[in-house]
Fold this sequence. Notes:
Number of strands: 14
Radius of gyration: 21 Å
Mean pLDDT: 96
Largest sheet: 7 strands, mixed
Structural class: alpha/beta
Strand order of the largest sheet: 1-2-3-4-5-6-7
Strand content: 15-25%
CATH superfamily: Ribonuclease Z/Hydroxyacylglutathione hydrolase-like
Shape: globular
CATH architecture: 4-Layer Sandwich
Number of domains: 1
Amino acid sequence: MSLAAELERALHYPLADQLPDSGRAIELAPGVKWLRMALPFALDHINLWLLRDRFQGREGWTVVDCCIDRPESRALWQQVAEHELEGLPVLRVVVTHMHPDHIGLAHWLCERWSTPEHECRLWISATDYSTARYACEVVNSFGGERLAEYFRSHGMVDEGDLEQIRKRKSYYRGLVPAVPPTYARLRDGQQLVIGGHAWRCVAGYGHAPEHMALHCEALGILISGDMVLPRISTNVSVYEMEPEADPLTLFLDSIDRFRPLPADTLVLPSHGKPFTGLHTRIQQLHDHHRERLAEVLQAARERPVSAYDMLPVLFKRPLDLHQTTFALGESVAHLHRLWHGGQLRRERDAQGIWRFAPV
């Protein structure tokens, strides 16, 4: 049995292997529906949520997260409108964070469901809204010369790989062609009343600038977004625009904010299946990163290392270039936790590559 399977056995999946059909939903609780849409990546799906709502005197639905913008996703949303909305409109679109699979279709959904009498508005944290607007409007977002130079400084020296990074100048905008021009701000601790129930916003950091999970005490449900996933560990990366960040510490501190929630909380993650066992999963994630950090520290004791050197230490499987870009950011994040924690020092070598060694 693989380690992932063994860890998964410690969690409970109330619906077992049941998944929503394409363009259809499964009701998990009164007024709470689960959608699942395909993604053209190694992580091949995203979970989306429909919450029955009454807002500003109108009956309808609140959508949580959207999928990337592509024809297949729009077609699935059309099916959802026909079969799952019970003839009612979408009243607002809540987005947990600014990554493309979560916000990509927000502009289209907001436009689709807005009327002269009611604007269907995007609800998101201010930090993630601003970051999404920036990434959508700047040509070299998540690609281009600056990112190539950043990766080179952390040990990616293959010119073929770097050239592909340089040419990837509109990666974000290709998946998120627009962001709604207005939004409603979500804040940590804010209570959203959706369908007569209070949903409390819980801010999380490290994965996105200001990720918002939603907890409903009355229903015993946590919409965890990407902060707590049942089978895979959340990507936590250092990006070129904040090159000295310590996101892994932020992430681990953030998931501990879910520990006070009841043990039987039903967790609705963005990837994977709804599960219970939140406290167990939080501990698994801490254990996972503690083990990886120990491996990185041991490797650095043997010789000064770059983040690129750490890829086979942190990831035991072959990676394509797309996966490598995420993995390298995560490798930097592990090195930076040890660096900021005083266990490693860093300096540039003669080739301008950051190398980390014990203090």
